[in-house]
Each structure stands twice: as C-alpha cells, then as structure tokens.
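Sample intake sheet
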Amino acid sequence: MPTPHGWRQLLQRRLPDKLLGVKRANVSPPKYDHGEQGLQMLKRLLFPRPRAAFVVSRSVKPGHPAAGLRLVVALIVSTFVGMPACASGKGPADLAARMDALLRQAPLARASVGVYVERASDGRAIYAHGADRLLIPASNQKILTALASLERFGPTHRFSTRILAPQAIDAEGMVSELIVEGGGDPVMNSEDWWRLAADLRGAGLRGVRGDLRVDDRLFDGPGWHPSWGNVTARAYHAPIGALTANYGTFFVSIWPQAAVGSAALVDVDPPVDYLRLRNQAKTGRAKTRARVVVDRIRGRQTDGPAEEIIRVSGVARQGASVDRFPRSVLDPGLYAGSLLAYQLEANGIDLEGDVRRAPQIESESFQLVLDRPGRTVAEAVGLCLKYSNNSIAESLVKSLAAWEGASLEERPVRQGNWVDGIRALRVELGRLGVDLAGAKLIDGSGLSIQNRLAPRMLVSALAVGRASFRSGPEFVAALPIARTDGTLKKRIRQGRGRIRAKTGLLSDAAVTSLSGYAEREDGETWIFSILVNGHSGGSAAAMDAVDRLAQTLLDFASPASIPAFDGKPVSAASLRSD
C-alpha cells in the first residue's frame, strides 16, 4: 500500500480541478503505480469516469466547495491507507450480494445450487444459499471417505499383501505353488510389485514349480457398484479389488508409421501376459478425421492362463505425436497376479505354471513366505484426494467394512462390501460429530448419481477434519492446492496457494462441486462447500463459475462483526446493512 505521501502524489495526478480547486498543469503520467486496486475504487466512489492529470492548487479559499471536499477525500484516503492490502474493503453485505449475483448468472442461474461458508475459528456463518439442500456431491463424497478412513485406521496404518506357500522354501529355493493374498492395499503400482518380487528373492525364493494363485476374496464382487450404470473402459471406471495393481489401469501408446495404410505401432504398459494385444489400427493421412479407438474385452478365463484382449482399431494420423490412452482392466486380481509374475521373472525367479485364481483355501494351513506392508493410509488418502482417484476411495470404504469391529493388528475375517462399508463410514463420522441425517450415501468415490449431501454436511466434515489431532494435518495436506497441484493445478488463477479444496465433476449429470478451505491474507480461514447440479452450458463454464465463487471468498474484507448463526440459512438480505 502507498504511504499517505504516496496517496497525496497519486491524487495530485488523478483528481479533477472542478472538485478540488486546481490549476491545470502538464504532468507526465507516473512511471509506476502504487495501490492501483484501492485507487480505482476511490475513483469509482468520487466520479464515474477517469479524467486527465491535474495538480492540486495550494490556494483554495475558505468557503470554496473544494475545501470541504478535500476533507472528505482525506478521510477516504486515510481509510484506504489503514485497510489491509489484500482486501477490497467490502463487508458482509457486499460479499453476499456478489455471491448472489454470481449465482444468478449463467451457467448457474437455472441450476440447483447449495453454498455454505463458515469461519473456521468460531464456526460462525459467513454466507449460505441452499446450505441444507441435498444435492449430488460428485467426488466431494471422497472428503467423507478420506476423513473416516484416516480416523478409523490412523494416518500411519499400512495395508499389507501376503505371499503364502504350501510349504517353506526348500534347499533349492523352490516351492510347489505360490499364493498372493490381497489385503486391500489400493496403491500398489508396478514398482511396488517389483520390490515385492525382489524381497521374495531376498528371502531365498528361486522358483515356483506350479502356478501363481491370486486370492482377492477380502472384498466381495463384482468390482463395480450397480448404481454406476453402464461402465466403460475408461480409467475412472476401474473395478475394485482387494488385490490390484496401478489402480486397476494400464496405458496403451500408439504411434503412426511413415507409410499410409501400414499398421500403427502399439505399446501396452505394463507388458504383462494377461493383457493380449489385438492391433487393428492403421496409419492414415494427416488430414483424416478418423481416430484411434482402444477397448478391452474379456478373453479366456479357464482352460489355460486367464487373459483380457486389448483391441486397438481406427486410424493414427500421419505425422502425429504419440497418443496415450489410460484404460481399466476387467479383473484387477488376475491383472495384479500377472504383474507379479512379470516382476518375478525380472528378479530371476522362475514360474513354471500359470497365473490362476486361488481355490477356496484356509490360509492358516499355508506357510507365510512374506508379509509386505504397503504405503500408509495418509499416502493413500493423499493420492485419492489430490487426483480424485475412485479406485482408492472405494477400496477404503470396503476396508472399513472388512475391519469393522476388528483389531487393526489382526487379519480381518469379514468380507468388505459397500453396504457395510458405508454403514461403518457413517458410524465413524457420527462419532466425530458430523451430522449426516438425511444424507444418502451409496459409494465412497461419488461416482453414483444416487448420492446426496448438503453443503453444511461437507463443511462440518471439513471443520472436524481440520481440528483433529489424530489426522488433521494429513487430512488438510491431502487436498489439492489452487494453481499448485492435483485437480486444482490449473484452476482459481488468483487463489494460488490460498485455497485447498476437493473438486467434483460428473459431466453427464451436469454436476460440479468444490469444497475446502480458503486462507485469507487477514489471517482467517473460511471453510466452504459449493455444490452445483443441473448447470447449463458445458462443464468448463460451470467449473469457472464455481471458481469465481471461491475467489470471491478471498477478495472481500472480513466482516468486522459477523452475526451469530441461528441455524437458519443466511442470505444477502439477512447480512446486508442499511
């Protein structure tokens, strides 16, 4: 902010002679400007349009209209000088009016919208519009899943994957059969499976005379919730399993060749035997409108090693760069087993048999070869919220069911499922004081359009999560940061580093959402939730409108006195002063 002397210099250049009693002079415009935001506001208050540059005259006679006006200007300037540089000086009525105005504009004007904002320090309401309206939350549902999981399991808990064999490793480093038992670890990737294979070699394993069996019975099936409708091969529709790899996804990369009509080059990552490539894609002319299509279909499941067919068809345009397609598998357990077989070979461990599903076995009758803990729950929650990972969220919900009433030190005896998992989630959040009365919770990720939450519920969960000694720091750190990382990396341009929030998007249902924390430069933190259902226009326009609402929370000065919240929705009318 400029000093009082700086304000005087600026006013000498900017204010009109008829108002201040001045003599016109040839004054060059300043080379630089101080406090442009405050100055522009001052100009709008005093006169409707900008004027030429002037110099204030020292000779203003008593009684001249400018004499009194100069006093008014001085008072206004002193107000701006004493105001925090980050704020616009607008109070609660202006904030509410601005929020209301944004909600009346497209693409939100005809949408069902709920907004609730409260001050973190004392829980006082800042703004509310449909705060108790039950709406589809999309991926804001993950806020509840993350909080319940962190509190139930603790940030440092690790889900483990076990390797079993009918007998101990013999003197030649061999076993007759190997069983990999999933423990619900949702974040095992290719590198983690390589490390597990390396640990097996370190334990003395050199070969398996029979098959590698996968046991993923900790979670029930099928891997897709029935309310999701027709699922696709897209990565966000990956099935949920107690044994998985790379979140149940893989990549297909496609390059055109030089000659038109020749087969396109295709690479599948990871290159496991379970994923069988069927390449039908051709190289086409650069200007063709045709495109490449990547799908997967279920292949052989019995009478030999199981497999899925990766079918690539269409046209790769000549001269185009590589196209990468993330896709989901159909069976995450067999996919993980095939990846382990690949990594066993990479570590010099020979597998003579195939990858198959394990029969009904009692694991207590087998020898434990290796028990490998995965990454922490805090890391899993971080990946889930930062990148809106559906697979992690649903795995955590099913784990809540599997460990319901059980000690974390023991292997669960219950099978994880959605119904019991959602019940366990409600119990955990209820214990924390989050009131979910009336809410409809179907899954853990928010993919289901049957979910219903109110903005006030999400703000309550965010307030509890932030205040928790057990997991608060990990919970807050897991949220995407505006213009910095995760799903907010390219959003809320003026809010860089000052907003941490969970995004939500269901394009087909015209749903977008944003809930989290706004850290203001006056030292206050505001907790907010914005849920939008049935917006007009495309998703990009709706997200931009939601971003403007969030940005508004940073732009307005903190109300000097916020009325106590009486339980009724707050609107612009109730906050606006006369």
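Comment: Residues 10-39, 41-59, 72-89, 560-578 have pLDDT under 50 and may be disordered. Residues 93 and 390 are 39 Å apart (CA to CA).
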